[in-house]
Design a protein that fits this description.
The complex is a heterodimer of chains A (about 290) and B (about 280). Chain A is mainly alpha-helical and about 290 residues long. Chain A has eleven helices and no strands. In chain A, α6 crosses α8, α8 packs antiparallel against α11 and α10 packs antiparallel against α11. The longest helix of chain B is centred in the last third of the chain and has 36 residues. The relative contact order of chain B is 0.14. The chains are: A mainly alpha (about 290), B mainly alpha (about 280).
Chain lengths: ~290, ~280
């Protein structure tokens, strides 16, 4: 009896601690999610009256060329970006974890891009793309860099990509370094004694043991790159000719100011479902590889 | 074994390549500093015009940029928002992580709550943005307080996951001993558990700080109606008004980068350690 009462007072304390937090989370995460999903079935403009339109917004999404463009750009950006970021940061991680001098200083410097805000980094690179690189092109008579990459409809996305990768590599490198540090030295020792070369050791030892970190990095960088916003805001504002309009940016632009609250809500719902699906698939795939060890 | 290790000495070639590679990081920063100190008349149209050091290092641009962007007010807002968010995250998310982490293996309900909160990690801000703007405006939270509340919610999934994961390292016996001594669950938490989670507090503080300090989108949409700005927001407003005076602009960028750079130089170990720790434990 006595112990029963004590237990219940304990769980009452637990509930008292947890319930306010859950309410807060519900109020500012789940509730707006539900509201957003609700408005996706209406023609709400963000103000004034509205009607239910059923699934019309969702059908319209598929025929809206601006929406298609934003998905094409965002996925092109995220796929190329994720691959580049992970290849570069894995190489950086290996390099910064090997027998080099000034190790901690170098690690410190290479992490700097991560602490700087995407918006300001975008402004700084915007100047580099618009003035410095064309000026270099003029001085050395290199024609193809004499115009700003950001002004070219075909290549502006590469400019955005360079900035996005520059920042993301910093974070992922640190994660790869901490992953490499979990691999004990004697595993390498053993493989060296067995006569395995550097590449074989990397493929058979480093890569499999690093799988959990590759998994984290893939999920993280894909998600972050799909949600690209700051760099677009400061580098191109979606231009030229909407060639670099990301999904987040389009939802912000047209949903907030463009009177497309309902329509962009439908867009956001699709975007949300895609992000969840992609993350789950990625975790499943890399999770399976981990098990094979 | 020792000898084997020693055989391969310092890889000087790689060291050299890595030092050279630092230029990719340092060049944009160098350029920012140089242009920030220059006079517009020194900005000729060639490479040297932008990259050569200024003829005299003048702080005029900074004074002007501070005035135009209302720097001190933006800095105060940024410090307020990030500071309160960090403190409340450590206090509130650690409690949530503790309660969930201690109960989720025995009780289904807590496990459900765990997955409910952690799944929030995959909800993009884009879908919450429009409803949140309405919601916060309706209840009078279209201001820094509202932004703080939202951050507490946005960082909850990651932080709860980190805290409840870290709890595995703290043996149950610690609490049981305190409880036998007659301490309440609440008191046990603050006197025994909270201090023991210190390494995780550092990680959570660092990750939350980096995320909130540089965030543009949340304050942009939530506080757009108010007079308040944050440092990134001030740059955004500045850009739309005075974007063509590059010297002024770069002085302003540099000003907004300085606080976080100072923080980084002072706490570099904790920051890198915190990020790495978050990845390993997560």
């Amino acid at each position: 009896m006595k112990s029963g009462r004590r237990l219940s007072s304990k769980s009452r304390t637990y509930l008292g601690m947890l319930i306010p937090v859950v309410i807060l989370f519900f109020a500012f995460n789940t509730l707006p999610l539900i509201i957003g999903a609700f408005y996706s079935f209406t023609n709400y403009r963000g103000y004034g009256s509205w009607d239910f339109v059923g699934l019309r917004n969702y059908f319209d999404l598929f025929t809206d060329s601006r929406v298609w463009n934003s998905y094409l750009f965002t996925f092109k950006y995220a796929i190329v970006g994720t691959i580049l970021v992970n290849v570069i940061s894995l190489l950086m991680g290996l390099a910064l974890n090997s027998k080099i001098r000034f190790k901690s200083t170098l690690r410190g410097i290479y992490f700097v891009p991560n602490i700087l805000g995407g918006l300001i980094v975008g402004y700084i690179f915007s100047f580099i793309f618009t003035y410095i690189i064309p000026a270099v092109g003029e001085t050395f008579n290199i024609e193809w860099i004499q115009n700003s990459i950001l002004a070219d409809e075909r290549f502006a996305w590469i400019g955005v990509l360079i900035v996005g990768v520059w920042q993301a590599v910093a974070m992922n490198t640190i994660i790869y370094i901490s992953g490499l540090q979990t691999i004990p030295e004697d595993v390498y020792e053993a493989s060296r004694i067995d006569g395995a070369g550097k590449f074989l050791t990397f493929r058979k030892i480093t890569l499999p043991l690093l799988m959990p970190f590759i998994s984290i990095n893939l999920v993280l960088s894909t998600k972050n790159m799909l949600m690209v916003f700051d760099q677009i805001m400061s580098l191109t504002k979606g231009g030229p000719a909407q060639s670099t309009e990301s999904i987040s940016y389009l939802i912000y632009r047209n949903g907030m100011d463009g009177g497309q609250f309902g329509f962009q809500s439908a867009n956001a719902v699709i975007f949300f479902i895609l992000i969840v699906t992609i993350s789950v698939i990625q975790m499943r795939m890399t999770g399976k590889k981990e098990e094979q060890l | 074994m020792r000898r084997l290790k020693r055989k391969q000495g310092t890889n000087w070639f790689l060291t050299f390549v890595l030092i050279l590679g630092c230029l990719t990081v340092l060049f944009p920063l160098y350029m920012t500093v140089i242009i920030a100190f220059k006079n517009p008349s020194e900005m000729t149209n060639d490479v040297a015009g932008a990259l050569a050091p200024p003829s005299n290092w003048s702080f005029d641009n900074f004074a002007e940029a501070m005035k135009v962007t209302n720097f001190w007010s933006a800095l105060a807002n940024s410090l307020f928002i990030s500071g309160i968010t960090i403190v409340l995250s450590v206090l509130i998310h650690s409690i949530a992580g503790y309660v969930i982490g201690r109960n989720m293996r025995r009780k289904k309900g807590y496990k459900l709550v765990y997955f409910y909160i952690v799944s929030g990690m995959f909800v993009p801000f884009a879908i919450l943005m429009m409803p949140l703007v309405k919601e916060t405006a309706q209840i009078g939270l279209a201001n820094p307080i509202g932004v703080i509340l939202l951050y507490l919610v946005f960082y909850m999934p990651m932080n709860v996951m980190l805290y409840s994961g870290y709890l595995k390292n703290i043996p149950l016996a610690m609490e049981e001993a305190a409880e036998i001594d007659g301490a309440s669950t609440w008191k046990t938490y603050w006197t025994v558990i909270f201090p023991m989670m210190k390494p995780m507090h550092a990680t959570v503080a660092v990750l939350t700080a980096l995320g909130t300090w540089n965030d543009v989108m949340t304050p942009l949409v939530i506080m757009s109606g108010s007079e308040n700005t944050t440092l990134p927001l001030a740059q955004l407003n500045f850009q739309t008004q005075f974007g063509t005076n590059y010297n002024l602009a770069f002085a302003s960028y540099l000003l907004s980068l300085i606080p976080i750079l100072i923080f980084y130089v002072v706490c570099q170990k904790q920051i890198i350690g915190g990020v790495a720790n978050g990845a390993v434990k997560g």
